[in-house]
Protein: ABC-type polar-amino-acid transporter
Organism: Rothia santali
Amino acid sequence: MSGVNKHFGDLHVLKDIDLTVHPGEVVVLIGPSGSGKSTLCRTINRLETIDEGEISIDGTPLPAEGKALAKLRSDVGMVFQAFNLFAHKSVLSNVMLGPMKVRGKSKKEAQDLAMALLEKVGVANQAHKLPAQLSGGQQQRVAIARALAMRPKVMLFDEPTSALDPEMINEVLDTMVALAKEGMTMIVVTHEMGFARKAAHRVIFLSDGQVVEESTPEEFFTNPQSDRAKDFLGKIL
Ligand code: ADP
Ligand code: MG
């Protein structure tokens, strides 16, 4: 992202954002509620438009619309706070759908891929259930498998554990840590310090739509530089 600015009416929600995430890098985006973290994530696959600046994925500028946008979007996997699984389809079908519809895979190929990914996130034994029959942690792992089924170049996670009961948070974070260790490029909005410490290469602190601080997790959590970061950490730790 370079020179990215966005407004919602009078609200200047993203201010001159310059951000490069390298292949294999894991970046944690952290900041107060309303600071623009979700909006920033959503601009990366153009769920939100920007007013100024440029966003490129793997060297390709984000197209405004059409097939080119759909293609680039399929390179960006997204996992949200709410799992957004298709309620009337089985877990397996949820994961098979993208590869079949967007990647043109045969049913057999899609099924093999989906089962392998469900295995990887530890819910293969739930494949034939409906999402509502799974726990929140299991559903979120299915959502991760579904995003991975598109073979994305980068994965965005927007507070993936904040809607979960405490005992389910770690199973989702562990899945994400494993993905990070495999070299997946990830942008993760989370306040989970454990995840940041284990998996993040960089922490970016956003406040009022601005990148205020950028450092290693160790540095950020033990020795924040700005008053805004100190104040924020004082509230969450
Ligand atoms: P965060 O994810 O850091 O909590 P958001 O990106 O969701 O922050 O929101 C940043 C600011 O933009 C907030 O003040 C929010 O109310 C506002 N906002 C978000 N989405 C919209 C929208 N679609 N229309 C108007 N304002 C919005
Ligand atoms: Mg948010």
In short: The chain has a mean pLDDT of 95. The pocket of adenosine-5'-diphosphate (ligand 1) is lined by residues 8, 11, 13, 31, 33-39 (CB under 6 Å). The first strand starts at residue 2 and ends at 8. The chain has nine helices and eleven strands.
